[in-house]
Design a protein that fits this description.
The complex is a heterodimer of chains A (about 120) and B (about 110).
Chain A: E1 3-5, E2 10-14, E3 19-21, E4 24-26, E5 31-38, E6 44-50, E7 56-58, E8 64-68, E9 73-78, E10 87-95, E11 104-105, E12 109-114
Parallel strand pairs in A: 2-12
Antiparallel strand pairs in A: 1-4, 3-9, 5-6, 5-10, 7-8, 8-9, 10-11, 10-12
Chain B: E1 4-7, E2 10-13, E3 19-25, E4 31-38, E5 42-49, E6 56-57, E7 64-66, E8 76-78, E9 87-94, E10 103-104, E11 108-112
The chains are: A mainly beta (about 120), B mainly beta (about 110).
Amino acid sequence: AQSVAQPEDQVNVAEGNPLTVKCTYSVSGNPYLFWYVQYPNRGLQFLLKYITGDNLVKGSYGFEAEFNKSQTSFHLKKPSALVSDSALYFCAVRDRNTRDYKLSFGAGTTVTVRA
Amino acid sequence: TAGITQAPTSQILAAGRSMTLRCTQDMRHNAMYWYRQDLGLGLRLIHYSNTAGTTGKGEVPDGYSVSRANTDDFPLTLASAVPSQTSVYFCASSRTSGRNEQFFGPGTRLTVL
């Protein structure tokens, strides 16, 4: 079985401050990990993914995420948040050992960046 | 390219009525998915299809059916809608490799009264 936990329903930061959105996962084997962002009344947009190799993954809009196997985490980070980063963020996982392509999503974290 | 389109954008439906949500992609992706999004629950997989002609059940398949007659289209049907099916529905597609991300449509907001 595969699952994802996003322990924070909401994250509030001031513009210009670092932003971190937490994600932990559970899989029986090794994971593929993804981050998506959803703006109001829109579909999900892909931000970045971890497949293999370097544990630090860089993605769109200045976001990055660090894969930590020992802590089973894949936290999303941005060094300097913008008001336009305010959105709903989803972490997702797929166990490499499964034969289908289904993702399991977390419940989402609402990020609010205040000016 | 349009990517993934969904129709309708929103719909109000009387309980007991049937409805088909449409999804079309132009990326020639083999795999397609239907999710529902509910506050506090994230996205839950309803049905999926790894390739044309095959479908599978996700986490919450009851009350829904799908078909995959060709690569591009993946309609979701509610045979007899109930209020608990009020939700926002998203269609997605991906290449058939687990390392590939899924691309999402704009969603259909469905209200069942």
